[in-house]
Amino acid sequence: ARIFIFFAVMGGVTFFSLLGSDILNIITHLASGKGKYNGPKKGRSHVLVIGGGVETGGTVQLEGFVRALCGDHSHDESGHHLAPEVVLMGRSAMSADTQQLIKTMKKEGNTVHYFV
Predict the structure, then answer these.
(1) Which of 30, 33, 46, 97 lies in disulfide reach of 85, CB 3.0 to 4.6 Å?
(2) Which backbone phi and psi does 45 adopt, to 5 degrees?
(3) Rounded CA gap, 12 and 17, in Å?
């Protein structure tokens, strides 16, 4: 019984150490903006924002622009948020400030994506 437990524990440690690096690679890949966009949920629109302002403009300007797009949109009768999904596209990985902006917008109920 002890030998079985030893091999079970060692097998689990090996398995999760191999998967752990894969999961970390996926998280890093998605955080860099190299993921896949599947389109908005049914009934929602989306806005694609491209150009130099996405990555070289200041975060304050980008935040103001994204907030203006999302605005204080009303909710429909079922309570769904009607603001469009905002998709930002840049030539390089997003900055830490942009990551924080996206997290803040998501906490507020808005959907913002960043892709390279």
Answers:
(1) 46
(2) -100, 175
(3) 8
Query: 59-70 vs 96-107: helix axis angle to the nearest 10?
Result: 20
pTM summary value? 0.59
Question: How far are the Cα atoms of 10, 13, 99, 100 from residue 84, in angstroms, in the given order?
Answer: 48, 44, 19, 19
94 vs 29: CA distance, rounded Å: 12
Token code pair at residue 13 = 């440690």
Query: What whole-number distance in Å separates Cα of residue 83 and Cα of residue 111?
Result: 8
Q: How far apart are CA 23 and CA 17, in angstroms?
A: 10
The closest of 59, 74, 73, 25 to 88, measured between CA atoms, is: 59
Residue 48 sits at the vertex; the CA angle it makes with 32 and 85, to the nearest 5 degrees, is 85
Measured CA to CA, the distance from residue 88 to residue 94 in angstroms comes to 10
- 3-state SS assignment for residue 47: strand
